[in-house]
TrEMBL record:
Family annotation (Gene3D superfamilies): Calcium-transporting ATPase, cytoplasmic domain N, Calcium-transporting ATPase, cytoplasmic transduction domain A, HAD superfamily/HAD-like
Cellular-component GO terms for this entry: plasma membrane
Name of the protein this chain belongs to: Phospholipid-transporting ATPase
Cofactor(s) listed in the protein's UniProt record: Mg(2+)
Family matches, as SUPFAM superfamilies: Calcium ATPase, transduction domain A, Calcium ATPase, transmembrane domain M, HAD-like, Metal cation-transporting ATPase, ATP-binding domain N
Transmembrane spans: 44-61, 268-290, 818-839, 894-915, 922-941, 953-977, 989-1010
Listed EC numbers: 7.6.2.1
Source species: Hibiscus trionum
Top-rank EC class of the record's enzyme: translocase
Topology term for the membrane: Multi-pass membrane protein
Residues where Mg(2+) binds: 381, 383, 752, 756
Length: 1096
């Protein structure tokens, strides 16, 4: 689909396309309440509580006042709705500010000042220097005589370097006074969110030009939210407006990510719900039986002889209402609150600030912090992520001569300097390609010095190196380049630019020497994109050796080449290129096809080698995270040997004999099959050996493996802790992340550039580095950091603490609800199984919302170990990865504790106060007091590090319980009049509280002491060492062995997985035995296929 934009036509486009009003609001005043309620009730848990609250309105069945459920429910909904309303109001203010900004447009041939929201498609918009672009425009004029303008695109892609934009060739030379009268039509595609692509055509109406088609690209546009810089004025035609701009189309709410812990909580909630239904059915049947047998014998029970048709449902429904609190109503709000605090802890962490750039760490996604503690695979980019992305020209090979090998710096090599001074033809051609085969823009500073604005760090390094060798790129005037070599000035006319693509892996320019009229094709690119296309007869062995030698040193290589073109050859090709550039369908593919018709028969000039240094702390970070059991994959577009050398230097892989690197290569299916089979066989044989085995694969072989041998490659991925994937495209990076996710691994992807965005968004956790390639990766990620080394602290400290705290909070929330529910169930056995509530409505509401929530929220400050100990002993992350703190086994423990504590509270309370010893209200208050006392000690027992905040939350909450109830006891209409006054004066009440705490906490303390003393975990050992102040030299082996794989190998049946062995999820997930094997939640097995892999 496409649209036709008529330039400067005030009528034709108004009804077809929207105006420029921006609206990012989610709600309006009228639809806020129904829409927000609909969203909240779309969740199963909210639907459940709404049903319970509605049932409580039926006075015949409700055992408590409906306020006990409606109060918390309305409070929780009000909190969520208020947050949504506040966020939406801020969006409204932002939209209002943008919509009411004043801009200049042409209306009926006259320039007028209007609000930005009144711009329509086809209007001509005028901009002045430093103006923000109000909508997507196609440039038609600028103050620059050559039709250039400079824009800052940081709001779009985070890149701070200025970009050049130019007017279409059809608009060149149009007088300033005539621009507001221009007429024509732009044929362009319908709005999309691709900010790097715009394939359109322009036709100007006479008298400007006679309907000649002029192709348009993204370089002829300036997009909404960019800023005009270093240009006095510019004007353009509005093509996309309002929410249909490229920026507006790319806005949106990303798909929420479900953490492993959230998934487990959902499963446990489902299990509790099933348990609740069973209890309700059993008690409902028992209640009806008792009613029809025993109840009618009691003179004080006035049941009618014949009841209504729904009589059998009354008691079961009463028990359903009583047991509804088994699922805590406040768990979601509590978890959302503490997760927001976890994210703030990351933002506030002063140890994760990059002081070199002043960039702090930032958590964009506040819902997945605990997943950081369960990461098993890290997929990392290389350039700019592991390295600094600061390119330095180090060596080169020109016509078979190596420069810089002795000194390590070609710029200081006297032989090269002599060749430059002697105007060696080969060297001059080589330097010419370095200087002008690029998209760099030279800018003269006020002091006269020439500064280069480059979109690529490689191009910046090459142009600066050429300048230091006296081939200085001086100026660019429209299509004319000026080069100063020694004392002479050389001018070239740029005829065409063949831009770099990840498929072609090279870029070229066609230039015409203004002195002799020769047309030359200059190219640079990867070795596999240049050397195979050399002319017949040229010896490329020296260049291949140079590429290999430089790659062994970890340097980035580029091959430079050129080819002289005849006038006829160029003209014939130019017509095809113009036709391909004008098509609106598959333009990129057709241009690439036309480019290949020209990029052949190269004369290879030489090879450049550029150094990209490792960031500080990268080797130490990788080594520490490896000790934590995290596997690493490097996904890079760089050459294999370069990637391997970087991997060796940063502890990514181990050198021989400790490590072994296996290569997967091949250009055909059979070659890749044999290579994959050989590597997989070796990997299986060495899987039981203490050897660090890794594999490396290039993009071509990877594409074949993923397409034809996916199962075999997946098995290889499971067996290997380390992989190096070279020459991979952004889509292949995302495919590899998806492959590991399909095997139930928790993946983290980290990168710094726009080519890493797909990988970052595909992973369970995306981390972006705010680097020299801009902020695209950081903006698309869940977390952004300034340097790779901060990843260690992000995972080991923030991830681990978040996991531990969330595991306790979620299980405690169920525990406190189950305690009160079990007491209600036990009470039913002495109240005729009638579904009568022991507790009044006010007490139940206060119990859920206040008494038991405040102490546990203080757990967000709890630390089982100090940060220094955690960083020193990273292997304890295994406990989080294996789900030791939240799984069916630990939940069963909390379930048992709640049942035990309910029995203790009920039995002691009943024997002390029941059977005519006190009123019903006193019995209820004693039981509630026992629950509050027990839970204060439970929270205190589970707290590892006390601060003043935690003491206030735990013991201050206990004091507040009595203060609040004394106040209620003083109110006659409260239903609790004088109860707490009477109880607190009785010694038996305090004795009862002591007995409840002693009986409830005694066995728990004894069990904890036994486990701490006789079966301590590694964490207990570290805690003891911290308390005693002594060092821990070794923790022993808590790292699981590699998963055992069947040793028998059959020809490519290796790709067929074995069925998983049925391993119970409640089996201990970590053992202190050296032979322990890790199992993650979801029952991962140790058979031939230890995961439930999905074969696409």
């Amino acid at each position: 689909m496409k649209r036709y934009v008529y330039i400067n036509d005030d009528e034709s486009s108004h009804e077809l396309y929207c105006d420029n009003r921006i609206s990012n609001r989610k709600y309006t005043v009228l639809n806020f309440l129904p829409k927000n309620l609909w969203e909240q009730f779309s969740r199963f848990m909210n639907q459940y509580f709404l049903l319970i609250a509605c049932l409580q309105l039926w006075s015949l069945i409700t055992p408590v006042n409906p306020a006990s459920t409606w109060g918390p429910l309305i409070f929780i909904f009000a909190v969520s709705a208020s947050k949504e309303a506040w966020d939406d109001y801020n969006r409204y203010l932002s939209d209002k500010k943008a919509n009411e900004k004043l801009v200049w447009v042409v209306r009926q041939g006259i320039r007028k000042h209007i609000q930005a929201q009144d711009i329509h498609v086809g209007n001509i918009v005028w901009l002045r220097e430093n103006d923000e672009v109000p909508c997507d425009l196609v440039l038609i004029g600028t103050s620059d005589p050559q039709g250039l303008c400079y824009v800052e695109t940081s709001a779009l892609d985070g890149e701070t370097d200025l970009k050049t934009r130019l007017i279409p060739t059809a608009c060149m030379g149009i007088d300033f006074e005539l621009l507001h009268k221009i007429k024509g039509v732009i044929e362009c595609p319908n709005p999309d969110k691709d900010i790097r692509r715009f394939d359109a055509n322009l036709r100007l109406f006479p008298p400007f030009i006679d309907n000649d088609v002029c192709p348009l690209t993204i370089k002829n546009t300036i997009l909404q939210s960019c800023y005009l810089r270093n240009t006095e004025w510019a004007c353009g035609v509005a093509i996309y407006t309002g929410n249909e701009t490229k920026l507006g189309m790319s806005r949106g709410i990303p798909e929420p990510k479900l953490t492993a812990m959230d998934a487990m909580i959902d499963k446990l909630t489902g299990a509790i719900f099933v348990f609740q239904i069973v209890v309700v059915m059993v008690l409902g049947i028992a209640g009806n039986v008792w009613k029809d047998t025993e109840a009618r014998k009691q003179w004080y029970v006035l049941y009618p002889l014949e009841g209504p048709w729904y009589e059998l449902l009354v008691i079961p429904l009463r028990f359903e209402l009583l047991c509804s609190i088994m699922i805590p109503i406040s768990i979601k709000v509590s978890l959302d609150l503490v997760k927001s605090l976890y994210a703030k802890f990351i933002d506030w962490d002063s140890e994760m600030i990059d002081y070199e750039t002043g960039i702090p760490s930032h958590a964009t996604n506040t819902a997945i912090s605990e997943d950081l503690g369960q990461v098993e695979y890290i997929m990392t980019d290389k350039t700019g992520t592991l390295t600094e992305n600061r390119m330095i020209f180090r060596r080169c090979c020109i016509s078979g001569v190596f420069y810089g090998n002795e000194s390590g710096d070609a710029l200081k090599d006297t032989r090269l300097l002599s060749a430059v001074a002697g105007c060696s033809t080969d060297v001059v051609q080589f330097l010419t390609v370095m200087a002008i085969c690029n998209t760099v823009i030279p800018i003269k500073s006020k002091t006269g010095a020439i500064l280069y604005k480059a979109q690529s760090q490689d191009e910046d390094a090459l142009v600066n190196a050429a300048a230091q060798l006296h081939m200085v790129y001086v100026n660019k005037n429209a299509n004319t380049l000026e080069i100063r070599f020694n004392s002479s000035v050389i001018k070239y006319e740029v005829l065409e630019t063949l831009e770099f693509t990840s498929d072609r892996k090279r870029m070229s320019v066609v230039v015409k020497d203004c002195q002799n009229g020769k047309i030359v094709l200059l190219s640079k690119g990867a070795d596999e994109a240049i050397l195979p296309y050399a002319y017949d007869g040229q010896q490329t062995r020296t260049f291949i050796e140079a590429v290999e030698q430089y790659a062994q040193l970890g340097l980035r290589t580029l091959c430079l080449a050129w080819r002289e073109l005849t006038e006829d050859e160029y003209q014939e090709w130019s017509l095809m290129f113009k036709e391909a550039s004008s098509t609106l369908i598959d333009r990129e593919w057709r241009i690439a096809e036309v480019c290949t018709r020209l990029e052949h028969d190269f004369e290879v000039l030489g090879v450049t080698a550029i150094e990209d240094r490792l960031q500080d702390g990268v080797p130490e970070t990788i080594e520490t995270l490896r000790k934590a059991g995290i596997n690493f994959w490097m996904l890079t577009g760089d050459k294999q040997n370069t990637a391997i050398q970087i991997a060796l230097s940063c502890n990514f892989i181990s050198p021989e004999p400790k490590g072994q690197l296996l290569l997967i290569d091949g250009k055909t299916e059979d070659e890749v099959c044999r290579s994959l089979e050989r590597v997989l066989l070796t990997m299986r044989i060495t899987s039981s050996e203490p050897k660090d085995v890794a594999f490396a694969v290039d993009g071509w072989a990877l594409e074949i493996a993923l397409k034809h041998y996916r199962k075999a490659f997946t098995e290889l991925a499971i067996l290997s802790r380390t992989a190096i994937c070279c020459r991979v495209t952004p889509s292949q990076k995302a495919q590899l992340v998806e492959l590991l996710k399909s095997c139930d691994y928790r993946t983290l992807a980290i990168g710094d550039g726009g080519n890493d965005v797909r990988m970052i968004q595909q992973a369970d956790i995306g981390v972006g580095i705010s680097g020299r390639e801009g902020l695209q990766a950081a903006r698309a990620a869940d977390y952004s950091i300034g340097k790779f080394r901060f990843l260690k602290r992000l995972i080991l400290v923030h991830g681990r603490y978040s996991y531990n705290r969330t595991a306790f909070l979620s299980q405690y929330s169920f525990y406190k609800s189950l305690v009160i529910c079990f007491i209600q169930i036990f009470f039913s056995f002495i109240s005729g199984v009638s579904g009568t509530s022991l507790f009044n409505s006010v007490s139940l509401m206060a119990y859920n919302v206040f008494y038991t929530s405040v102490p546990v929220l203080a757990s967000v400050l709890d630390k089982d170990l100090s940060e220094g100990t955690v960083m020193q002993h990273p292997q304890i992350l295994f406990y989080c990865q294996a789900g030791r703190l939240l799984n069916p086994s630990t939940f069963a423990g909390w379930f048992g504790r709640s049942l035990f504590h309910a029995i203790v509270v009920f039995v002691i309370t009943i024997h002390a106060y029941a059977y005519e010893k006190s009123e019903m209200e006193e019995l209820s208050m004693v039981a509630l007091s026992g629950c509050i006392w027990l839970q204060a000690f439970v929270v205190a027992l589970e707290t590892n590090s006390f601060t003043i905040v935690q003491h206030l939350a735990i013991w201050g909450n206990l004091v507040a319980f009595y203060v609040i109830n004394w106040i209620f006891s003083a109110i006659p209409a409260s239903g609790m009049y004088t109860i707490m006054f009477r109880l607190c004066r009785q010694p038996s009440y305090w004795i009862t509280m002591f007995l409840i705490v002693a009986a409830g906490m005694g066995p728990v303390l004894a069990l904890k002491y036994f486990r701490y003393t006789y079966r301590p975990s590694k964490i207990n050992t570290l805690q003891q060492a911290e308390r005693m102040g002594g060092p821990i030299l070794t923790l022993g082996n808590i790292e699981p062995q590699q998963r055992s794989i069947e040793k028998e190998v059959s020809p490519l049946s290796i790709s067929q997985p074995k069925s998983r062995s049925p391993t119970p999820v409640y089996e201990p997930l970590l053992s202190d035995s050296p032979n322990s094997s890790r199992r993650s939640l979801g029952s991962r097995s140790s058979s031939s296929y230890s995961r439930n892999c999905k074969d696409n």
